[in-house]
Amino acid sequence: MSSLILPSLRVxxxxxxxxxxxxxxxxxxxxxxxxxxxVPRNVAVFLFDGVELLDFAGPADVFAAAGxxxxxxxxxxxxxxxxxxxxxxxxxxxxxxxCPKPDVLVIPGGNTAAPxxxxxxxxxxxxxxxxxxxxxxxxxxxxxxxxxxxxxxxQATTHWGQLARLRKAxxxxxxxxxxxxxxxxxxxxxxxxxxxxxxxxxxxxxLSGRSTATWAANGMEYKWNRAPEPEQPxxx
Length: 236
Prior knowledge:
This protein is α/β, with parallel strands linked by helices and 236 residues long.
């Protein structure tokens, strides 16, 4: 079994930064770009046994790649190692008891049986999300947000293969298909696996500006699948 200790999940960002000299400088440090906040936003990436690897690593890499405006860390029900997809062991940096207050909370998917069965986890997610700027789910992480009551009466999405199950489990949610992500303000839900990267880039775009999100996508060599721009009213 492979073993990875990823306390801040900046490993992926470091790889491209070594070759990223083609990118002149970090956004927010050049004239005309969105300024970087003096205090970085805390991004808590929630982990659990059976979590899908790209569901958490993709968004984590986005926020790490976005630069000094974000401090990324992992959190789980405890700091005991968790196993992703049966072969990657990860040691969470924090537990839900000592996790720093997140500004952005990422809830990935995968085999969500363990967090769904934990009243402590559901209560923590519900409580923390009251004070986040954005709480974001990836794939079947939407079921965790639904269990916490965070999707009631709202639009949401999940992995295409789980749309019908989400509709059945939570009939009060307007479940959307054929979308990469759904943004209803404080809550962003994404479709499966790689769609979490698009959703995370969208959140960076919202919080830090288009230049920072584009810079992160370019650094990751990722073709960003953005939502369509809203239609502008016709000029008279």
